[in-house]
Amino acid sequence: MSFWSRLAEDLQTARTHDPAARSRLEIALNYSGLHAIWVHRLSHRLWQHPDRRLLARTVSQLGRFLTGVEIHPGATIGRRFFIDHGMGVVIGETAEIGEDVMLYHGVTLGGRSLEKVKRHPTVGDRVVIGAGAKILGPVEIGADSAVGANAVVVKDVPEDSIVTGIPGKVRPRTPEKQQPLVDPSTYIDPAMWI
Hints:
The chain contains four helices and 15 strands. By secondary structure, the protein is of the alpha/beta class.
């Protein structure tokens, strides 16, 4: 994929995920999550050459300073990745992120070990991770799953799941298997409160 095609895809991804986006120019100039991804692509390319790893880390830290998003240059990130509001996101060295993934602010894809092994999460395709969520260790988040805001995940999550709570509790995402969040018989229309 050419540089310009990838750039256009990034801008369209941001526009698709953020209803507040008004133009590609606005996105290109003002979206720190997108800027962090662009810096990561450069630092990751440098990281692929062992003799350029110091430069890769330096570029990565400059990106962190400018955007508030820290992505280790060793992390592997798929296409159409989007970070909404960006600030406070941390993605560790051995993290692997699939395609069409969306993170909100304050997300950590962190490690639980000091050993030089796979110690960060693997996130499948089409996963959404809510604000403040912490996914720790070499766990796998299955495709088409969602991690709720402020959830702490330390165990694998199967595909098509929703994870909420501390520690994260998993439930199926498919509607026929979900229980309603509110008992319909006790529901009171908020319009009646006025």
